[in-house]
Every structure is written in structure tokens, then in C-alpha cells.
Amino acid sequence: MTPNPADHSPDPHPNRSARTKPRRMLRLGALAFAAMVAASSWVLWACSVGPKATPAELAKVERATIESKLTDGTPVTLAYRRAGPTDARRLIFIHGTPGDSGAWADELVDPLPGFEVIAVDRLGFGASKPARVFTSYHDQAAAIAPLLVTRNGQAPIIVGHSLGGPIAATLCAENPDRVGGLLILAGSFDPAMEEPHWYNHAASWGIFSWMLPDVMLKSNKEMFAGRDETTLLTPKLASITCPVIILQGEKDTLVPPSNAAYAKQRLSGAKSVEVEMLPNEGHFLPWKQRTRMRQLIGRLDSLLQ
User: Fold this and answer.
1) Is 46 helix (H, G, I), strand (E, B) or coil?
2) Which of 53, 172, 200, 204 gives a 20 to 30 Å CA spacing to 62?
3) What are the sequence ranges of the domains in the chain?
4) What's the CATH code, domain 60-202+218-303?
5) pTM of the model
């Protein structure tokens, strides 16, 4: 075969690959920086509509821990804050991602009358140990389960916001006889809706992940596990037997409103299921709709009398 001279012709752009690599790195760096900005903006936004109680007020709230072992034998210490009478029905609040029990500072500083209010630091966040990430909803729920104390025939009411919603549902599904009622605030349930955003992908790149704070890295891993975890949760929803109320904002851009209908359709074993859609509301319901949240807790309590 006669060699083709074109096969040996010099590259007319010998420095092209050398120029392309730095440009690619700059693009990746820009994406990572954008991810950091997006994450920081989310935190600032959340803080801007967060609890009104001051850090000094929250510091006065009682702290406690409870130890247990996960299914695989891993010892864990769940940290939580509590307020209110210790002989009343428990009201257990579960935060989203990222976050900790301080997200419920208003409910701790000004607890609903007639309840012992408990707000947990989910595994991997706040003062709970070990400090590593736990993406399993089952593990998260198992660490909270020892707090399910029934007093005078009154089982706890569980409140979960955002990612805390499906974790609260897991807790109720796996302990149906130990839960009185469930309130879900903007909870994510539909696996088809659990698609990480572009900034989640950027933040997961090893070369850039070191730029993000630990709490955001944990949150990012929880986001990537969302589809698998909600897939595991879906068949369990039918095991929930207590009354359920779902509060959802129609303008929620973080958890699509269709999640409420998805959950309601599968809560076939619940004593009752109510869905309340707020036409002009977004994702941060615990703070922007605090009065309505407390009213719905009261409604659950009345259903249990």
C-alpha cells in the first residue's frame, strides 16, 4: 500500500491542544465557582427567611443526645434540642438539607402549648455523631426512632421540611404503631423529580470539592442519593397508618409541587390524607407560613383525640 503523504503532514495548529487544556480548566473552574456562588446564595436566601429567634435565645434551649445503633451495627449519637413540658405529647421536627435543629429555633423558643417540642440534628449535621454523611433515609429515621415516646396514649406528631419530609415519612412507615400524625412541608417524594442540578454536578468534582464547606458537601451527596432513596421509600408509603397533612407551595422551585400529589396517591394506608396547596408560596414554609404550620399541627392533634 502506498503511504498517503497527508498522513504525515504537520499539524497546522501545533499548539492547539496546549491552548485547549488551560481553557477547559478555566471553564471548569468557572463552573465550580458558580456552584460555590449558588450554594452560598442558597444559604443566604434560606437565612434571610429563616427563624426570627436570635442565637442568644436559641442558646438557652436545652440540649440533649440519645445513642443507638443502626441496622449495620454502627453506633450513632443523635443530638437534639427540646422545650416544653416533659409529660406532654411529643412534637418532633426534622430539618432539610443542609441545616440542623436551629432551623426550628422559633418553635423551640416559643413552643406550642401542650407539646414537648423536639428538633433533631439529623445524622451528619449539627452536633450529631459521627460527623460523616448518611444518605440513607432508613439510617436517618432509625437514629430518630428512639425519640418516639408515647405518653398517656398520645403518640408523637412528626413534622418534616424539604428532605426532612421523606425522612419523616420513612420514620412513620417503619414505626406505624409509634406515630400519631405526620405533617409534611414541601417534601420531596417523586424519584422522577430527583434530578441534581448542574451546580450539584460541578460541586462533586474532586478537583473543586475542596472549595466547598463540609456541610455543603454532605448536602450535595444527599441530593445525589435522592432518586435512589425516594425509590426505596415509595413502596413504604402505604405502610403509614396515621393521619397525614401535606403543605406545599405552588411556586416552589426546589421541590416541584407535583410531589404532593405523588405522595398522596401512595399513602393508601393512612387514616386520612389532606393536601393544602398555597398558590403564592415557595419552599421556605416553616418560616414564611409558620402560623399555618402551627394551625395544621393543632388539626392533627385534634384528629388524634
Assistant:
1) helix
2) 172
3) 60-202+218-303
4) 3.40.50.1820
5) 0.83
